[in-house]
Every structure is written in structure tokens, then in C-alpha cells.
Amino acid sequence: MNKPVIIGSGLAGLTAAWALAPTECVLVTPGTLTDNAASMWAQGGIAAALADDDSPTLHAADTVRAGAFVGDTRTIRRITDAAPDVVALLADLGVPFDHTDDGRLDLALEGGHSRSRVAHAGDSSGAAITRTMAAAVRDLPSVHTLERHAARRLLTGADGAISGVEVIAPDGCALVLETDAVVLATGGMGALWPCTTNPATALGQGVAMAARVGARTDDLHLVQFHPTALDVPAFPNPLLTEALRGAGAILTADGERFVHELQPRDVVAAAVWEQLQAGRSVRLDCREIPCVATRFAAVAELCAAHGFDIVRDLLPVRPALHYSMGGVSVDAHARTSVPGLWAVGEVSRTGLHGANRLASNSLLEAVVTGRAAADSIRGADTRWTPQVLPVDPATVVPPSAGAAVDLGEVRAILGASCGVLRDGESLEGAVDRLAELRHDDAGYVAWLVARSALLHPHTVGAHRRIDEQLETAAAQEVPA
């Protein structure tokens, strides 16, 4: 086996590189280590059943419920069972988790959780965890990092197995890294929407690369809108963490409270969207949270940069694309349907999140899947038997020449057709237009998303079809 190649330096990719040691690997990242990684932006923390009144069983039940009961129960149990050990591992590596006065981990309550179970490091937990893992990786002689190298496409042999990665060097030249093992850790695709909390570089490149070589994707229509992005003219939108509502912040529309703030995100996002569509002014009121400016220092700084005082002001909010529950389909070992290709973190579809991700389960999934991929690579043999269904041939579109698409158009199409609320007519138009843009990776991924949404006519979790009731009513009509 050639050196495995890991594409991406967020928490999932870093964990895979760390867990592979002492096996040598190449870590490819388009910037410097951790640049533009969504895990660096995570504010809340990492969920784990660590309190005396909690258990992995309860954590699993909350995950199933938040995911609209369509998640993979075996995956959910496997990952929630691993959560306490993941937190212990990160603490041993040096993550500065917050503690109470008696020395216990300070566990926060977030939406969808029945217990306080989110271990955090201030309100910049993702940055603290990802930087700690990056520091551990930098110390490993087994990891050869190629910074400022952008992966462009995956290469396969006559047998369909991975044979290499084409990357673009800082001087613009293309080079091929020959390998029979690639770990995709490229993150999500949230920047394909006009309002997002994701880095602007999150354009679904990993989904595009994998799908073009025949990897199966699932649930791409299942994307989560965070209900409380700061509603300001910025791209991406600043995120106001779920933990604010867990600490007591309330949502109001024209001054009146309208929703239970600690319901799962899909429910709260839909409620906020309904108020905005009715022309009401939606605000997040954090004024009653004790010591809010110091307890949520990073959020206070974000708000101040846009002219708001978190201590005194009501904060305008709106839903913004936050996370992809779907992605490249993988099994428990992070294997895809393409031999030699693993996928970890947000680019993967593990089944953990169902139709709506439970708050603070993403960093947990990143660590668990990163380690699973590393374990699988170290133990790899000549067989490739992942528990993943075969690819739908209609989704495989090889790359072709063509002008780069206008990202503004792609965002406008997805914003109009694949927003908080969806309908068949809009989706049909989106699929038709985006089919003309599939030569470009952004256009291709957007087409896959819209196509997936069109093929799912019923509401589930974050996928809300406003035409479902009309279809149901029509189906029940009996001719005279």
C-alpha cells in the first residue's frame, strides 16, 4: 500500500492522521492546518453522557428523537456509547474543557437534549478541540502535511478502485499523489446556500469528487438550518450558539415569545421562518443570562463586530444553513462503496443524525469516524466489503469541460428551492437548471441536493415539503 492520503485538516481528518500513527500518511489541506475547517467554528462543544443522571442510552434516545426517528439505531448506539471515552481522550490530549468549582466537567444543556451533557471550552469549543488535535498531529513524524495544496479529483484504476489523487500545488501546477487509500475529510456544503454559518469554502468538494468516481451518496436533501444565525448582511452569517438558549435566552416575534427554544433545531428553525415569512421581527433575548458577556465571550465579540451588545440588545436572528446530515455513504468502518475510499466527518453519511442533527453530536462523530477510518486502513486486506448499497448510476456524472458557474446563481437556486420549506414545482425547476451546470463541482453537488429533495415528497425532520398536504388530500379524493 502507498501512503494513505487524507484530504482535509478539520477535526475528522486530523483525528484520522493522529490515529494512523505510526503508519505514515499524507495530509492534504488547501490552506494551513485547520484553515477554513468548520470544526474550528463549532461553538457549543461535544455531547457525551457523563453526568450521574445520564447514560449513553439516554443520549442515543435523544439522538433518535431529534433525528425524526429515521437515524440508523446501530450507528447511533455505537457512537453515543463511545462518547465518554472520546471526551476522556481529548482531555488527555490537552483540550481545556471547562470545569465546575468541585472539579467536574461543566456540562451544558442544548436543544433536543434531555440532560446537560455538552462538554465545552468556553464558547469556542471546536477551535479548542481542533487546535489540540492539530498540535498532536504536528508532533508526529508519520504525518507528511502538504499545505496550500487543493485536491481536485480522485483517480481510479480499471477495476474502479482508488489509484490516486490529483492536487493543485501552490504554483497552480497539477500533480498526482499515487495511493490506494484516500480518506475524505473535506467537510460540508453549506456555502452553496445564500445564508449559511459555514466557511465560504464549504462547497461540497468531497461529495463531488466521490460521486464522480461512483461513490454512493444518501440523504443529501437533509440539511440542517440553524435557527439563530445573526441576521446581518454578512457571508457567512455569524452563529449564535445553541448554548445561549440552553442558558436561558428566549426567542420573540414582535416582542412575543412563540416557541419552546429547546426543541430540536428543525422545529425551532421552522418556527422562526414562519414568523419571518409573516413579516414579524424575530429577536433572540440573551439579557437574562447571568454574566452572558464573559460566559459567551466569542459570541459577544461577534455581536459587537456588527454593532450589537449581547448584554443590552435584542439580537435579530434568522435560520441559516448549518450542517449536512447526508453525504457520502459509509459503513461502521468509514468505508464507501468505492474500494480504497473512506469518508469521515461531515462529508460522510453515517446514519447518526437521521433527518436532523442533535446539537453537539458533530464533533463527536468527527473523532469516532476519523479513528474508525484509521483502524480500517491499518487492518485492510485485499477484500473490500463495506455494508453500503451500490451507487445509483443516475447520480454518477464524470467531469467535463465548461466554464465555471456563477456561485451566486447556484446559491439563489438552492435558497429558493431547498430552503427551510420546499415544494415540488420549485424543486423541478431547480433540478432542470442545475442539470446544465453539472460540469462544475458546485453545480453538480447542488443538482444532487435538489434531485434528492425532489425524490422525497414527504416531510421528515429538516426536509419540510409544504406541498405534502396537498398531495395527501388529492390522493384521498374519491371521484363522484
Helix segment count? Answer: 14
Strand content: 15-25%
Q: What is the CATH class name of the largest domain? A: Alpha Beta
Provide the structure class: alpha/beta
Q: If strands are numbered along the chain, what order do they take across the biggest sheet?
A: 6-2-1-10-18
Shape: globular
Q: Considering the protein shown, what is the CATH homologous superfamily of the largest domain?
A: FAD/NAD(P)-binding domain
Number of domains: 3
How widely separated are the two ends? 70 Å
At the fold tier of CATH, the topology name of the largest domain is FAD/NAD(P)-binding domain
Largest sheet: 5 strands, parallel
Which residue ranges are poorly predicted, with pLDDT under 50 across at least 5 consecutive positions? 470-480
Average pLDDT value?
94
CATH architecture of the largest domain: 3-Layer(bba) Sandwich
What is the alpha-carbon Rg in Å?
Answer: 22 Å
**Strand elements, count:** 19
Instruction: Give helix % range.
Output: 25-40%
Function: Catalyzes the oxidation of L-aspartate to iminoaspartate, the first step in the de novo biosynthesis of NAD(+).
GO molecular function: L-aspartate oxidase activity; steroid dehydrogenase activity, acting on the CH-CH group of donors
Catalytic activity: L-aspartate + O2 = iminosuccinate + H2O2
Family: Belongs to the FAD-dependent oxidoreductase 2 family. NadB subfamily.
